[in-house]
Design goal:
mainly alpha; 0% strand; 138 residues
Length: 138
C-alpha cells in the first residue's frame, strides 16, 4: 500500500517538475522535527503497512512534500526505509527463529516475500544468512 502510493506520488511529482520550472522554496523549519516523528512512527508500526497519507498527517505535510523531504533527510522513500528497517529486524530474528516466524514478526506477507526483499537488499537468502548463526554438529 505504501509502495504503490509512493510510486504514484513520485511519478506525479516528476510530471509536475517536468511541466513546470517553478519549485516551492524550502522554508519550513518544522520539517525535520515532524520527519523524525514520521520516521519514529514507521519504527513503532514496523509490522503493519502504513499509508503515505497516514505519515503525511503525522508529519503535518502533504504527501508530495513528505516524500520529497523524507528522501532528502533519510536518503530513502518512506516505503524503502520501512523495508530496510524490517530487514534489519529480520536479521536479528533469523539468528534464533525459523524463517517463516521471522517473516511474520517483521511484517512480511509470507516467507517468500521476506526472501525476495532480503535477497535484493542483503545479497543472500534468509536461509543462508540464518545458517551462519546455527550451531554446527561436531
Amino acid at each position: 500500500m505504501l509502495e504503490v502510493e509512493s510510486r504514484f506520488v513520485n511519478a506525479f511529482a516528476s510530471l509536475l517538475t517536468i511541466a513546470s520550472s517553478w519549485r516551492a522554496p524550502k522554508t519550513s523549519t518544522s520539517a525535520p522535527a515532524t520527519l523524525v516523528e514520521a520516521r519514529d512512527y514507521l519504527h513503532d508500526h514496523l509490522v503493519r503497512d502504513v499509508s503515505l497519507a497516514e505519515l503525511a498527517q503525522i508529519a503535518g505535510l502533504s504527501k508530495f512534500h513528505l516524500l520529497r523531504v523524507f528522501r532528502e533527510r533519510f536518503g530513502l522513500t518512506p516505503h524503502a526505509y520501512q523495508l530496510q528497517q524490517r530487514i534489519l529486524r529480520a536479521k536479528q530474528l533469523l539468528r534464533v527463529l525459523p524463517i517463516a516466524d521471522a517473516a511474520a514478526q517483521c511484517g512480511f506477507a509470507d516467507q517468500s516475500h521476506l526472501h525476495r526483499v532480503f535477497r535484493s537488499l542483503v545479497g543472500t537468502t534468509p536461509g543462508s544468512y540464518s545458517q551462519q548463526f546455527r550451531s554446527r554438529p561436531a
